[in-house]
Amino acid sequence: MNVLVCIKRVPATGGHIALTPDGQNIDTRYLGFTISPHEECAVEEAVRLIEKHGGSSTVLTLGPEVATEQLRDAMALGMDRAVLLETDGREWDPVATTDAIVAAIERDRAAGRDYDLLLFGNESADSAGYQVGVRVAAALDLPCVTGIKALEIREGKAAVRRQTESGWETSEVTVPAVLTVKEGINLPRYPSLPGRLKAKKKEIERSRPQWVDGGLEKVRLSLPVQAAHTVEMLGQNGDVGPQVVELFRRLRLL
Amino acid sequence: MVLGFIEHVGGAPTSLSLELLTMARRLAQRMGVPLEALVIGGSGASASGILASYGVSVVHVADDERLSAYAPAAWAHTMVQLVEAAHPAVVIGTGSDRGAEVMAHVAARLRLPLAANCTEVIPGNPFLVTRQRWGGSLLEEARLKGAVKLLTVAPHAVTVEADATATDIEVETKRPSLEDKDFRVTVVPQVEADTGKVSLAQARVVVGGGRGVGSAEGFQALEELASLLGGAVGCSRAVTSLGWRPHADQVGQTGMRIAPDLYIACGISGAIQHMVGCRAAKHILAINTDKEAPIVAQADYAVIGDVKAVVTAVTSEIRRLKPS
Ligand SMILES: Cc1cc2nc3c(=O)[nH]c(=O)nc-3n(C[C@H](O)[C@H](O)[C@H](O)COP(=O)(O)OP(=O)(O)OC[C@H]3O[C@@H](n4cnc5c(N)ncnc54)[C@H](O)[C@@H]3O)c2cc1C
Ligand SMILES: Nc1ncnc2c1ncn2[C@@H]1O[C@H](COP(=O)(O)O)[C@@H](O)[C@H]1O
Q: From ligand 2's centre to the CA of A6, what distance in Å?
């Protein structure tokens, strides 16, 4: 089987976010980059599917040239092939992103590569539009299940489960299908050193899609206003038991 | 007209749907247009009393026995037919899993932009929204274009408020025309057996552990404290990635959102992706060796010290006062 996973490069912010002075972006000068944990799990799921059923896995991203870092990370985990849809670094909204991804999938199809499963994150970490996977499914006229936390392929069907507040929901779709994944579906492996070395040497297929105005345009970013508050220090080390228990009493928890 | 997509359980709108109605009514008033609602399933008609009290003038009930199970594409197709017949200026869904999914399908079918998780909407030209990114740790002001404005409301960003001047409501029941293709995905619920354990979502006290707990075994002390307080144990992503705890325990952007009375963050640094999962807690107590850790500045109470030493001191003090 052929599996495609779509990932997005995002800054790995730590304890707080700083914005650039024009409010257009996160100040990434001191930050590393990563992908959403949902997408990391989608990559792991694809690698496991190919290990089990045979076939080939492709990882794709739309982003600047430096996003090859995330493609190589995915190949280090075992993805076979990588595709970069290169941008000049500005943000593409969900409609524009979908168009570029769909065009790339259609090019692969024309070249004889049909995907049985297209995996996405349930939402991207940064812009969290909750929609690119669904839009790609609609454009390709494929069934789509979002937010899955379990997947099993049997007899040409994908049996999936998703979690709700009161338990689980199950669903079964015929493949080809689009599935969007939530963290928790698996525990991703760590890349091996040989995996990293192999990924370094692999070729990345590149193209430059045309930007379109998808109709959702960022004006500026801001940080939510936090209510000012003070921290009450209950103590340092050792014998803080009584102070903490006194707090539990004050909060009527004991 | 502003159209709200209402989720309901047997005719009772979900709390997120009431938040949606509150935002949608204010928007409709600002635009000087009526507020209408779509409910799916025949039992939705019984929501009309509540919907009227939130300012809805027409409720569209989509009735088709095949719609009683959740089928995202069929629900979206139903909505699209209403949009094409009634020409709303704005369509609003909730930010629940289902709301987000149905609205994404609607947007895809109509090839219109969709703004997810909005906290504020300013109608006009340009049509401006403020929406959450990074699970709410960042806000984006954006221009939303399109012949129909499609958006979802961020959960818990709006305080529910009924309409003081509720009027009559019309109920319009219709059978949408759906294709077999719309039912390629249908969902079967599986209600989980009650284990009798306090769930992370409901617990009044959550004891959260991070990398600073040191090992899977280190969580034993946190389990003990949680059980003495009648609470549950949660954890950070570092912990689930290390395989110390199952992902179901993870609090944060890609885990659970919790709102206990007290969150005790043990050996957790307080990364923004963790904080978005626990910031709704009434109080936060941080236990950390590093007084400069971001969690300390964001907590209401802090103890600077080693997790194991502090938690053990606390549990033995509780036991001393309350011998079982
Ligand atoms: C897109 C995205 C989504 C994410 N989603 C989530 C999410 O849902 N949930 C989540 O938690 N994280 C999430 N993360 C990860 C997040 O950024 C942090 O990496 C993670 O929360 C760190 O976990 P931690 O605080 O346990 O570990 P660390 O950051 O390593 O912190 C450990 C803390 O323990 C303290 N410590 C060490 N030893 C001791 C001791 N003996 N006693 C007391 N204190 C001690 C240290 O001072 C430090 O503050 C996400 C990241 C990204 C990029
Ligand atoms: N620039 C991108 N490149 C590749 N995949 C993307 C991109 N943006 C979004 N996606 C995929 O679409 C999913 C949903 O994104 P979103 O609709 O932005 O929440 C993500 O988890 C990714 O799998």
A: 6
Query: Cα separation of B24 and B1, whole Å?
Result: 10
3-state class (DSSP) for residue A242:
helix
Instruction: Report the residue of chain B nearest A143, measured CA to CA.
Output: B184
Q: Which of B137, B91, B96, B92 lies closest to B8 in space, CA to CA? A: B96
User: Distance (Å) from the C-alpha of residue A119 to the closest C-alpha of chain B?
Assistant: 16
> How many whole angstroms separate alpha carbon A63 and alpha carbon A82?
13
Cα Rg of chain B, angstroms? 23
Report the candidate in A132, A162, A38 with the shortest Cα–Cα distance to residue B97. A162
Closest approach of chain A CAs to the CA of B29, in angstroms? 24
Burial of B40 (0-12, 13-18, 19+ CB in 10 A): buried
Backbone torsion region of residue B136, taken as left when φ is above 0, otherwise alpha when ψ lies between -120 and 50, otherwise beta? left
Task: Report the chain A residue with the minimal C-alpha distance to residue B187.
Answer: A171
Amino acid, res. A80: D
Confirm or reject: Cβ of A44 under 6 Å from ligand 2: no
Degrees, nearest 5: CA angle B175-B176-B177 = 120
The neighbour count for residue A79, using CB atoms within 10 Å, is: 28
Contact present, B90 and B114 (Cβ < 8 Å): no
Residue in A37, A144, A146 closest to B254 by CB? A37
Determine phi and psi for B60, rounding to 5 degrees: -95, 120
Structural domains of chain A ordered from first start: 2-219 (3.40.50.620)
B218 Cβ neighbours under 8 A, 6+ residues apart: B209, B307, B308
- Predicted model pTM: 0.97
Q: What are phi and psi of A141, to 5 degrees?
A: 55, 45
Contact criterion met (CB < 8 Å) for B152 and A130: yes
Under 8 Å between Cβ of B32 and B39: no
Running DSSP on this structure, what letter comes out for residue B90? E
Q: Which residues contact B239 (CB under 8 A, 6 or more apart)?
A: B209, B210, B211, B213, B245, B249, B250
pLDDT tens sequence for chain B (324 residues): 999 999 999 899 999 999 999 999 999 999 999 999 999 998 889 999 999 999 999 999 999 999 989 999 999 999 999 999 999 999 999 999 999 999 999 999 999 999 999 999 999 999 999 999 999 999 999 999 999 999 999 999 999 999 988 679 999 999 999 999 999 999 999 887 777 788 999 999 999 999 999 999 999 999 999 999 999 999 999 999 999 999 999 999 999 999 999 999 999 999 999 999 999 999 999 999 999 999 999 999 999 999 999 999 999 999 999 876
Q: Nearest bound ligand to CA A216?
A: 2
- The half-sphere exposure of B144 on its side-chain side, counting CA atoms within 13 A, is 29
ipTM of the complex: 0.97
8 A C-beta contact, residue A76 and residue A199:
yes
One-letter amino acid at A44 equals E
User: Which ligand has the nearest atom to the CA of A38?
Assistant: 2
> What domains sit in chain B, N to C, each tagged with a CATH number?
2-183 (3.40.50.620), 205-321 (3.40.50.1220)
